[in-house]
Protein 1
Amino acid sequence: MSIGPVSRRDVLKSLSIGAAASSVLRVIPLQAAEYAHHMISSEKAASKAGAYTPKFFPQQQYKTLQALCQTIFPADADSGGAIEAGAPEFIDLLTSENPQYQLTLGGGLMWLDSVCLDRHGNAYLECTAQQQTEILDCIAYRKTIVQDASLSQGVAFFAFLRNLTADGFFTSKIGIQYLGYIGNGFLTEFPGCPPVPGV
Amino acid sequence: MPQVIRSPKVYDVCIIGSGAGGGTAAKVLSEGGLNVAMLEAGPTLNPSKDYKEHVWPYALPHRGADIGGRARHELNGEFLAPNGFWEIEGEPYTSAPGSDFHWFRSRIEGGRTNHWGRIALRIAPADFKARSRDGLGDDWPISYEDLAPYYDKVDSFVGVFGTKENIPSAPDGMFLPPPRPRCTETLVKKACDHLNILCVPSRMAILTKPLNGRAPCHYCAQCGRGCISASNFSSSQVMIPPAQATGRFTLIANAMAREIVVNKDGHAQAVSYIDKTTHQEMRIHAKAFVVAASACESARLLLNSRSTLFPNGLANSSGVVGRYLTDSVGTNASGYFPQLAAVAPHNHDGVGGMHMYMPWWKFDRKNDFPRGYHIEFGGGRHMPGVGQFDEMCEETEGYGVSLKQKCRSTYGTFIGFSGRGEMIPNPDTYCEIDPDVVDKWGIPVLRFHFAWSDNEIKMAKDMQETFRAIVEEAGGTFYGRAKPEGKSPYGISDGGEIIHELGTVRMGDDPKTSALNKNCQAHDVKNLFVADGACFVSGPEKNPTLSIMALSWRTSEYLLDQAKKGEI
């Protein structure tokens, strides 16, 4: 597809601008996505064992993000968890392009660490498993805001992270298998609904 | 102004726009023996490169969420066929205070037909003469019988599946066999039968049998991404190739029309346009012009074509250009159906869109709003996508294995319902040239005014009540967020959101109240025709694309006939 006067440089530039309204990206998402795709796969190939270098989150914050994603969708007997599904990479990529996500998620992770420091003298990752569960049980439910209004930012942060983690998990190969989606194929005839009682 | 480059050639016809209307005109006119040039404001299309058919979400780093996650928050999707946008960099439009209008434009060969819904419905006989029945709006200058032969030609050429039902509000076409219903559709159909609501196989421009050299559907449900095998209809893959095969067709891509230029006799003689690649001002000459740039873009072009002879814009001595704008009434809701959880995993994909729908079924009774609507619905075990689990996560809350299992157990158990109804044109809804704003090509932009009347709001209320009745009859739990009050009563869509803009250069018998005659020829300029949704006199609850093609086919045959008689 020829897009006229949009260069490779424009694509790079628009990636750093993110979803800003003035971004040239509004006319070239295809090339940009393709470019980002190549960028990520070449980075994976370049670094050993496919280690991922976060684009937005500092290394320590990224570890916290990984831990939270895996807690939201853990591995179980039926499938791997959010880390195996690539959810943290997906979230980091989107966040690197979206200033609003940077505030909600970057700020949210700092909020979490500061609350943990206040309560237990340690950042989230250094807290005991029991302390981690205790704070997550506070911010994973809206009803806790009624008892403690100071938790509201944490609840909003966690709700958004939970949505993005679900996106990352259920759009992965293992997530799609976990759901049991069958399709994206080539059929000569559509079989219709199999016999089901009540349907 | 830099030097204008004039093409020495004079074409028989210049078409502006390559979508449903422009593509149909290109095929009919070039096959009829005329030399045709087409201006398209975007690039050419290369399906094998541009389409993301069969790509899994995990094959893309953004997983379908697009750059910065914007597909989660806008109606665009990363997987959609390319170049359709609510905002285009450097090409703005404005909304008057209090009007919240959204304008979806596609700048690419084929226009919006690359990712439209493929819903192909005929306008019913009663729709053409609705004013005679209820006194609102205006009757069309043509009847169903005038258009029916052209509907037949379009159906036979592009391929539409469906079933003969003899429903007065939903005329039958020349149908290919429909695909079998999915589980979600079987379930809803049963409930509709109990409620005496018509629920029949949908009518979609997707091939279920080979047709005119195109392969039938392979049931991957991804029509919106664009179809590499051209098994669904798009102008770029179905109309433009036969035009190109005549050797009499020239597609000029990246050509943004600025104005239509007239000679001293008041005949259109050229289009001046900007070559977006070189930023050069160009001019192309022809003996006749077919404007098919989309309803509002066509109105904009005419309004911007001002001259001493036509100070209010071309073909606008009546002052109606830009007026009588309508969009479809839309609102939606969904239902949770626990019995679908018992259905074993199976291939639920089907075609890209619904296999069944509810045509307007209350045409034979008194309702508390004029005109009608139909219902589109879908859901079930489709390919998972971003944003799909937001509601379940927000409702379930928490985290861990229990949340994961809850998402799995409810996957495929939701069905969404959307109403699509007729809006009556009103004096507060129109587009005009914004006196203060130009786009980056220096072309003055449109300013939109939009307001729903009580008619449409009552219709949205009725839609919501019907959705609830169907969900509950089918044993589901109704999920509706629409409230009767507020900015969007009963969840009624914003203007333009349904992407069915119509009526801005309407046809009619009286040159004082219409811009075009019954052949979509301008009353004021005999060699100027309009072949998109702009010519509609009303916006019945039928998705307009099929009618745009039938009208364009009819207009093109008239133009051919006039050319043969030496009238043009």
Protein 2
Amino acid sequence: MAKLKLAVFWAASCGGCDVAILDINEKILDLAEIADIVLWPCAADFKYHHVEAMEDKSIDVCLWNGSVRTSEHEDIAKLLRAKTKVMVAFGSCACFGGIPALANFSNRDEIFERAYIEAPTNDNPNRTLPQTLTKVKEGELELPEFYNTVHSLAQVIDVEYYIPGCPPPVDLILKVVDALATGQLPPPGSVIASEKTLCDECDRIKEGKSISKIYRPHQIIPDDKKCLLEQGILCMGPATRGGCGLRCIKVNMPCRGCFGPPAGVVDQGAKLVSAIASIYNAGSEEEISKMVDEIVDPAGTFYRFGMSTSLLKRKRIAGLNSPR
Amino acid sequence: MGEFEPKIVGFFCNWCSYRGADLAGTSRLKYVPNVRVIRVMCSGRVDPTFVLKALQSGADGVLISGCHIGDCHYQDGNRKTVRRFSLLKKMLTQLGIEDERVQLEWVSASEATRFASIVNDMTEEVRKLGPFPINGGISG
């Protein structure tokens, strides 16, 4: 059998997904056995023009990690889509926007203002900001356009498979490597993880959900046998897809929601609002406002990894809103 | 372009608010026709997803209405509504959605005039806000 051609690309991401591929340890040799790497900016020296020179659909698999933040990401996504047979959204950023998509609570102007002007380590009296085109005497310099809104990969191109996780766990990566090696791929559109929620897979003792105080992680040392939510710690398990191997739960940390919504759930944040408010033991107005105060940042907590693919996708910002 | 007519999706509970709306009709009260009513068995049935989905599907406002506290047909369904609604509202504020766009009001089966005035008031409030920007109103 001819070797598979594999591309790995990183867009708006931290690089953790690239490390996760290396985390398969000696299995990387199996990967090298079945696949030739044709693009992996993090690990090997290939240029975009090498990809442009390839024939359409000549790459067998592309593992794309990171969300789509700039015009460069979008251009490369479209280029790789044209050249690739199987496109995989690899990791939470590619699947749902991930941590970079928390920028959807802001916009380009606000982010530039903070990053290049306000931040205390800046010294920028001339207010120099990134420009897509700059004229200098040698010619024109180009930078990719920085978008107002962070998108998931599937919002820009068609995607065959999704491997969620921040980063995706090794066993799921190996599952995909095995599937590629044997040619037994799941139906397109599949999420390579569990169909159930994290709570469904969690083996902690559950005694009945009713809480009357929410603790932030630094305020309490949780019992490592009991349900974290029942101890008053915000755990995203009720509306998060399982299949992660309970990585956080096993080290006594609450789920942060990186696997995105489970099958059948449209909006992870809305479901978490519903779940958390339902189990909070509040009847009077004072108790309800205590609950609302204790959940300091509901949008940032419940959409920590899922802003791009949430129903509202971004914050509405006055002045930028135009009539539809 | 004609004048902007707000589209408001109303989730009304079967036992109180829907009947209040019905009474407004049979009493021939005049009120604005901007609310599209969806009957639910209890205001507690209104999943926060419904609210977001309504906005994202073209509604300019969402009105949830149920029995007064203490009058719930299912004892405490509407108490759960308040809890979910309060948390949802905090999240919607973070997402830049104006207070008037998503409202919760109690209307009993006999409060036809109250129902009519709530609908009239909310429609005017949403009219002032303008259409809900589905795509966030910004490109890129």
